[in-house]
Design goal:
Largest sheet: 8 strands, mixed
Number of strands: 14
Structural class: alpha/beta
Strand order of the largest sheet: 4-1-9-10-11-12-13-14
CATH class: Alpha Beta
CATH topology: UDP-N-acetylmuramoyl-L-alanine:D-glutamate ligase
Shape: globular
Number of domains: 1
CATH architecture: 3-Layer(aba) Sandwich
CATH superfamily: Ribokinase
Strand content: 15-25%
Number of helices: 12
Order of helices and strands: EEEHEEHEEEHHEHHEHEHHEEEHHH
Radius of gyration: 19 Å
Distance between the termini: 12 Å
Amino acid sequence: MRPLAVIGNVNVDLIVGPVAPWPKAGTETVVDHDDLRVGGQAGNTALAWQALGIDFEIAANIGDDQFGRWLSEAFGARAQKWPVHREGTTLSVGMTHPDGERTFFTTRGHLPRFGLSDVLSVLDGQRLAGGYALLCGSFLTDDLTRDYNAFFDWAETHEISVALDTGWPIEGWTEANCAAARGWLSRCELALFNEVETTTLAALANPAEAARKIRDGMKGGAMVAVKRGPDGALAIGADGELIEMQAPRVPVVDTIGAGDVFNAAFLASLAYERELESCLSAAIQVASRAISTLPRNYGEPIAFEEAVNERA
């Protein structure tokens, strides 16, 4: 198995709901469900890897408060070197709605102070050589984002393939944000975006055409995977082949972090050197299971172990 790492945002998520209609000011609304859990793109990815029994490393930072300590405890030894910043831990409150939509309120907290020195204090380039590193939460980690070029230089030095999932910009996909993302993608081997992000970034309505346009601006031999929710996903491989796959119909319980779970399973499959079609299938299956179970279930580690045994 090739080494795996995730770099980016780990924060606290408080999920409540369902809420409908939007509450009036000055009122109190009783909801049926609440869940306080580890969140953020990097946090969600790492939780999925943990549950699937995948070996990985994670570079993140935490705030100097009880929530920061709680986040660190969730990842045990993997979080021992996480830098602690004086800011309070970033908290995201998500309200779910009966139609499946979500509304989030997020504090800035500790995430903007996550920098390149924090990453390099946690990750060992030689140990990750030849592996994959998922870079995520780009529009929240201000200090690191400013040093992305230096991070890409470090990854190239150690022959680490970088996968990018920026997340949705706070200001939306402005021209400046699109230009920044295209610049980052030009130094990446893998793009992992959802359908709306892909078509918006490429300014094309067709997701497959948009994926090809994004791939054209990436490194030679790059791959692009597009997450399409209930419509499954598509991917364009290093050879330019397009693969499309439907998602199974499942009862949807909680879609928060579904794209991050997809990323985790896709990259785990790549690390086990599966074919692209198998990577796409595993990602869809694991994400579908996650969004349809409460408490969340990712399936059994055995699925990835069998892939290794089949090749042996």
